[in-house]
């Protein structure tokens, strides 16, 4: 089988460069397109030079349509508005769309579902193997323990992260809520300040820390009477997200259109 022809959007960013580098290192994948926003300084540059792997003959462009027409898949860690625009292009071209973008609204999610009627869409708040295993463990522990165990999710990222809580923290919150068979939007507590009163039974709390160059740390705490369970994942290198995203793209090849998650890619779903 020929290599899967992949596009990276947001190619000049830190994650974009990591993705392009990872694609060149992955058997069965090849980089055929690199997209940046209109007017970006990197337009016209060689994608391989940006990624630090030497010339590849792939030019960074802001003209996405012809690039999508010759690709098999696109990997997208951009911003919500751009992701929705790329979802429409991917659906028109019938190519796989791997979405690692965080901060997507409920309306954005509905638009991705619509795109998934025509293309394979894989969406995850985190593409790493470890985090997806953490989510599965969180669901199982939440199901096993009753509401006498309070659930708190603590996450920390670098000072430049713009959304909070992180997409991964929300994914873990959804896993906890699923395990408890409750709705996160009814039980999530997103911040505490001042005279908040006692903690309500069944709440799922979130705390977002920002500072330094932290790639990503997430801890799920189950605090019960006289005992506490903590499950933690620490990301040490952005490469784990890039490798997971490329793995997802390769998994998508030949699949039926639909909305999938990394749990599907890793065989963690029932």
Q: In short, what is this structure?
A:
The chain has 270 residues and is of the alpha/beta class. It is 37% helix and 24% strand.
What order do the helices and strands come in, and which of them pair?
Blueprint: E1 4-9, H1 14-25, E2 29-35, H2 47-51, E3 60-61, H3 64-69, E4 73-76, H4 80-93, E5 96-99, H5 106-115, E6 120-123, H6 129-144, E7 150-157, H7 167-180, H8 184-187, E8 188-189, E9 204-210, E10 216-224, E11 227-235, H9 239-252, E12 258-260, H10 262-265
Parallel strand pairs: 1-2, 1-4, 2-3, 4-5, 5-6, 6-12, 7-9, 8-9
Antiparallel strand pairs: 7-10, 10-11
Helix pairs in contact: 1-9, 4-5, 6-7
User: What is the overall silhouette?
Assistant: elongated
Main structural class: alpha/beta
Number of helices: 10
Q: Strand tally, please?
A: 12
Low-confidence regions = none
Q: In angstroms, what is the radius of gyration? A: 19 Å
The SSE string, one letter per element, is EHEHEHEHEHEHEHHEEEEHEH
- The strand order across the widest sheet is 3-2-1-4-5-6-12
Average the pLDDT over all residues and give the rounded result: 95
- Binned, the helix content reads 25-40%
Report the sheet with the most strands, covering strand number, pairing sense and barrel closure: 7 strands, parallel
Strand content: 15-25%
End-to-end CA span: 29 Å
């Amino acid at each position: 089988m020929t290599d899967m022809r992949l596009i990276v959007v947001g190619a000049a960013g830190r994650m974009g460069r990591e993705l392009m580098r990872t694609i060149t290192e992955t058997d069965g994948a090849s980089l055929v397109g690199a997209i940046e926003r209109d007017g970006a300084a990197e337009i016209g540059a060689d994608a391989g030079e940006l990624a630090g792997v030497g010339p590849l003959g792939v030019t960074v462009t802001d003209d996405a349509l012809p690039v999508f027409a010759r690709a098999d898949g696109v990997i997208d860690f951009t911003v919500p508005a751009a992701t929705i625009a790329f979802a429409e292009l991917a659906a028109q071209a019938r190519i796989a769309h791997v979405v690692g973008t965080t901060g997507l609204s409920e309306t954005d999610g509905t638009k991705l579902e619509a795109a998934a009627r025509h293309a394979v869409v894989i969406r995850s708040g985190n593409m790493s193997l470890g985090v997806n295993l953490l989510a599965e463990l969180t669901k199982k522990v939440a199901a096993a323990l009753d509401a006498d165990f309070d659930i708190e999710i603590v996450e920390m990222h670098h000072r430049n992260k713009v959304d909070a809580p992180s997409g991964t923290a929300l994914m873990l919150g959804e896993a906890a809520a699923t395990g408890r068979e409750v709705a996160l939007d009814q039980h999530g507590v997103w911040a505490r300040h001042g005279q908040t009163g006692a903690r309500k039974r069944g709440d799922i709390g979130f705390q977002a820390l920002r500072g330094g160059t932290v790639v990503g740390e997430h801890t799920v705490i189950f605090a019960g009477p006289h005992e506490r369970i903590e499950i933690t994942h620490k990301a040490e290198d952005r490469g784990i997200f890039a490798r997971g995203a490329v793995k997802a793209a390769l998994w998508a090849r030949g699949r039926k259109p639909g909305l999938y998650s990394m749990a599907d890619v890793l065989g963690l779903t029932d």
